[in-house]
Amino acid sequence: MRQLKLLIAALLLGLTVTSNATIIDGCVTGGDVYAAGNCKFEVLNTDPFENSDGGTGVGKNNFNDGWLHSFDEEQNVWSNDYSEEINATVSSHYVFFDPKYSKTVEGWVAFDGEILAIIWGRAGLMSTEDQFGLDNVNYRYPRLVGLERRDRRGTSFLDNILTIDWKASSPGDHIRVITRAVSIPEPGSLALLGLGLVGLGISRRRAK
């Protein structure tokens, strides 16, 4: 029994983990752009990233539709800025509403990691691009990018759910959502643990 415990402990110490926190789902539930039976929400493909004009820009009237858009940014970033934990691993996500004309939207977005912070001002979006932004996305920063006061009041989160109530025109409403990365055991490490336990069982039976 003692040999079994030592083996399990050694294998668990050797387990490596990957961390991620992606966008799970979302939906438009109200506002001018609401359409019954159509959530009007999408997680954009970033490989390659492409806007409505066939370019790679976001932030400056690059979509001009009535949808709530999102995409995952850098994952597994070590940061002390968004958690009480020292050297917490966080992930970033971009959520935006870019209508052609002035429109309102209400809705929600769910992530598979706990939301820690929302970056919603032009200065904050610019200063965190190097840390969290994607190289293949052309982030644009016109004067009114981010959220105005009304939209900040209409933005909240609880656990892993972001809730929005925005009114946007040009250039739209854009935020960066920081979530806690979720640790997942590597499949290879779990297989190694299983093989070790099987091997130990065989050796014990032979010893008898």
Walkthrough of the structure:
The protein is an alpha+beta fold. The chain has one domain. The chain is 23% helix and 36% strand. The chain contains 5 helices and 14 strands. It has helices at 2-13, 122-127, 129-132, 149-153, 187-207; strands at 17-20, 23-30, 41-43, 57-58, 68-72, 77-79, 88-97, 103-111, 115-119, 138-139, 155-158, 161-168, 173-180, 182-185. Strands 3, 5, 6, 7, 9 and 13 form a 6-stranded mixed sheet that branches. β11 and β12 form a beta hairpin. The radius of gyration is 22 Å and the shape is globular. The two termini are 14 Å apart.
Descriptive labels:
208 residues; alpha+beta; 6-stranded mixed β-sheet; 4-stranded antiparallel β-sheet; 5 helices; 14 strands; globular; disordered N terminus
